[in-house]
Amino acid sequence: MDRRREQRVTAALPVRVWGIDAYDQAFTQIVSARNVSAEGALLTGMRHRIRQGEILEVQYGERKAEFRVVWVSESVDHLRAQVGIKALPSENCIWDVNLQQCCEFVGNG
Fold it and tell me: What are the residues facing 1 on neighbouring strands?
């Protein structure tokens, strides 16, 4: 059974991410946002080591928001990490998809 509190939509949305990596170096990178929800997403393809708890700025189209890193799963070669992020409470949803409608469509499909 899925323990998630929110409905998620499987997607592959290109996003720009920037922040401070595990070596205290500023970075910016284009990655893919997957499994998006109103409050979070899974980022895939991260080439920078990121610490859990860090704040990242994420931009999708013209919309931007700050997210906290809630978990990190590094690849075996340390070149392509997956990062789970959750929007800060003060931020609005940046995804321009109707998450509720997508979930209803999939549920009825």
Answer: none
This prediction has a pTM of 0.81
Q: Residue 83 is encoded by which pair of tokens?
A: 């990062």
Which architecture does CATH list for 13-108?
Beta Barrel (2.40)
- The residue extents of the domains of the chain are 13-108
- In tens digits, the chain (109 residues) has pLDDT values of 445 455 668 888 999 999 999 999 999 999 999 989 989 999 999 999 999 999 999 999 999 999 999 999 976 665 678 999 999 999 999 987 654 444 443 444 4
- Residue matched to tokens 């610490």: 51
* Side-chain-facing half-sphere of 54: CA atoms under 13 Å: 23
